[in-house]
Write a structure and sequence with these properties.
Chain lengths: 271, 460
């Protein structure tokens, strides 16, 4: 038994190292000069440490402004989207009404439509209503998440109906039941969904790029692509900016990680 | 009755919602912000030769106006040009906005087709079909442009010009000067013919047993770039005399393939010696490679310690000027948005004349892009002969532009070279496949080449 556990742990450790190594390589490369990064003789540790890549990203990219824009959008969209998902999930999990199944199927079917199909009509729509170059164009389409509603419904199905009935008998309003009973019982799913949505928004590139024209409003994911030129790539700058860009993702994961697995599992298991 | 604690929460929620609402509705624009210009006479001379620019005017009647200019590289340089113009016309503000190269070609056409987009945008001729319908013609007599800009005639469409070449880029042979010296070679050994080149490549090759340590010549990943240019040396155009049928599967292209395969067969290089010849050259593993002008910028930025130079592409026969040394492609001047307001278009047209006649800017841009300047008044500037990559251009008139050829030429010939080098496909068969693919891809596209505008054009 001990041998099996040891073998399993060793395997996981090897896989973990394989997964994590490129990230460390990227972070360490951020401290190398471009010549060293593209040179033939590669080394894991920088031969000559330099902070120049970190210094230059602010002048080249206005990094902290883009970083702030991405944080604002990610936090706002995550908060709004998680809330609407909770409401949608609550309705589909705990109310019985005509057309409920069909409506839920329609919501799920929106997840099947590929991005490439909707991007041009969506672009035209937002342009026609004059929302280009505004954060509204980024936030509005992301406020309702079909995946989020699905995930929350699966999670809330596990909340016993008897608890809700008891609350109603005690005179609790539906508003109270939702906010004070069902939502707190879905905290694991909320944590998992928050991580998913935050990550999706943080790394979303094409839609913000198409919608936002002003440099001062642009997001970090778009800014990072400017390191890729027509003929060459500024790897040092790209690695430095990317190393800093993953910090919020790490923070969000650290905050929610304890509940993440349970939350993700609750979406897969119907209680 | 709202309890105090709840009241605080409600107030905080309202405040947060207000901040979000303000952020959401914040839009670009921000007003013109410039100053009025009341002095038409700037006391400045008229610039230019045939195409001229008179700065002693009021743009937009001196009223403030802002233009946005989209570009994907050299942002500081373009902004400096715009700022210099603003110094002459303080009421005109031009902001250069950096765009990522790849998705610029998704965003810009979408903006233009939706009647939006910036007043000015940089153009790449490979995107000609996606942009041309929404571009405003230059308010310049094409004859003036042709007189001052090399290759401008090839860009005239129904008597109008929408963009011209800022400069011309083509291929040359880059060589590592340290390896050159170590092999006992001197300037006198720079090869003029491909046969001489083959011998030089042998001398530059270092092997340890069967293992290749230093390639004399490496063209891995660059086969397609050479293929599309070198057949011209043998008098073979890219299109048949009808100006529509691609001419790939022919003896000239087969000769070109075999010439380079022979160099690898000598042992002077190897298909498995790295996937990228330019990277291998930069890393000091290959002594010579073929690349276009952009590579000198890459070498300066990414391999600053490497000692290198460049020479003109060798030719089949010594002492004979080939039909053309190579093909070229241009870095283009900017386009003007047909959707822009009349005031913006008028200001953009004025700025265009300034831009096209500003010798110093043209010189700096050409050096920065490593392109031979299309602007004729600066073509003899010594700065261009000091740059090895530009000096490798010999007779600029002997380079041919086939037009903004569809990407299928490049992708199909790249596949052809991979098939030959890695899959053992016979060159004859690979050429035939490339021909078929290109014909199929071009079918219905209506592409019209500009080879017949080449001064020495000869139909096959």
């Amino acid at each position: 038994m001990k041998v099996r556990v040891f073998a399993l742990n060793a395997t996981l450790a090897v896989v973990g190292v394989i997964i994590v190594l490129p990230f460390f390589w990227m972070i360490l490369s951020a401290f190398k000069s471009n010549a060293e990064i593209v040179g033939f003789e590669q080394s894991f540790w920088p031969r000559e440490w330099t902070l120049q890549n970190f210094i230059s990203i602010q002048t080249k990219l206005d990094f902290f402004r883009l970083f702030g824009n991405s944080v604002f959008l990610s936090v706002t969209i995550t908060a709004l989207s998680v809330y609407t998902s909770l409401v949608g999930g609550f309705v589909f999990a705990k109310y019985r009404f005509r057309g409920r199944g069909v409506l839920f199927a329609v919501i799920l079917s929106t997840m099947m439509v590929t991005w490439a199909v909707v991007i041009i009509p969506r672009y035209t729509m937002f342009r026609e209503i004059g929302l280009t170059d505004s954060y509204a164009s980024i936030i509005i389409p992301a406020v309702i998440s079909a995946f989020g509603i699905f995930m929350m419904r699966q999670s809330m199905d596990a909340v016993p109906d008897e608890i809700l009935e008891a609350a109603r008998i005690d005179g609790a309003s539906e508003w109270f039941i939702f906010h004070r009973i069902v939502a707190p019982m879905s905290v694991n799913a909320i944590s998992a969904l928050s991580i998913f949505i935050f990550l999706w928004v943080w790394e979303d590139y094409l839609w913000p790029y198409l919608m936002i024209s002003s440099e001062e409003k642009q997001v970090l994911a778009v800014g990072l692509t400017t390191f890729n030129g027509q003929y060459s790539t500024d790897y040092g700058g790209l690695f430095a900016a990317t190393s800093l860009a993953i910090v919020p993702v790490m923070i969000v994961y650290v905050i929610f990680q304890r509940r993440f697995i349970a939350g993700a599992a609750s979406a897969a298991l119907k209680g | 009755m709202i309890r105090p604690k709840r009241r605080v929460r409600v107030a905080a929620s309202i405040a947060a919602a207000t901040v979000i609402a303000v952020s959401l509705t914040a839009c670009g624009g921000g007003g013109s912000g410039g100053v009025e210009d009341t002095e038409a006479d700037k006391g400045l001379p008229v610039a230019g030769v045939n195409l001229t620019y008179d700065p002693n005017t009021l743009v937009n009647d001196g009223k403030p106006i802002e233009l946005e200019w989209w570009a994907w590289s050299n942002i500081e340089q373009f902004q400096a040009i715009a700022d210099a113009y603003t110094e002459i016309h303080p009421n005109v503000t031009i902001k250069v906005v950096n765009q990522p190269w790849e998705d610029y070609w998704t965003k810009l056409p979408l903006e233009l087709q939706s009647d939006g987009g910036p007043a000015i945008f940089n153009v790449h001729n490979s995107q000609h079909d996606n942009l041309i319908a929404k571009m405003e013609p230059y308010d310049i007599d094409p004859a003036d442009l042709e007189a001052d800009y090399t290759g401008a005639a090839a860009h005239v469409i129904d008597g109008e010009t929408y963009y011209v070449d800022l400069g011309l880029m083509s291929g040359s042979i880059y060589y590592n000067t340290d390896m050159w010296e170590a092999a006992g070679l001197t300037e006198a050994d720079i090869p003029k013919t491909w046969d001489e080149f083959r011998e030089v490549a042998k001398k530059l090759t270092i092997r340890e047993g069967d293992e290749l340590r230093q390639a004399g010549f490496n063209f891995n990943g660059a086969g397609q770039a050479m293929q599309m240019g070198m057949a011209y040396q043998l008098g073979q155009n890219l299109f048949a005399a009808d100006g529509a049928t691609p001419a790939v599967d022919n003896q000239a292209n087969l000769d070109v393939i075999n010439r380079f395969l022979d160099i690898y067969a000598d042992g002077s290089g190897d298909a498995d010696f790295g996937a990228s010849a330019t990277e291998s050259f930069g890393q000091g593993l290959s002594a010579m490679t073929y690349a276009w002008g952009w590579f000198s910028g890459t070498l300066r930025n990414e391999y600053p310690d490497l000692k290198w130079s460049a020479f003109q592409t060798p030719v089949p026969s010594g002492g004979e000027t080939p039909y053309a040394y190579d093909r070229y492609n241009g870095e283009s001047t900017f386009g003007i948005n047909a959707n822009a307001s009349d005031a913006e278009k008028a200001a953009a047209q004025d700025f265009l004349r300034y831009y096209l006649t500003d010798e110093e800017s043209m010189k700096e841009l050409s050096l920065s892009f490593s392109i031979f300047p299309a602007y004729k008044p600066i073509a003899d500037d010594p700065a261009f002969t000091e740059d090895p990559a530009l000096a490798a251009f010999g007779d600029i008139e002997r380079y041919i532009w086939p037009g903004p050829v569809p990407s299928t030429f490049e992708t199909s010939t790249a596949t052809m070279w991979e098939e030959i080098l890695f899959n053992g496909v016979a060159p004859e068969d690979a050429l035939a496949t490339a021909q078929k693919t290109i014909e199929k891809d071009l079918d219905g596209k209506g592409f019209v080449p500009t080879e017949d505008l080449y001064p020495f054009y000869a139909a096959d």
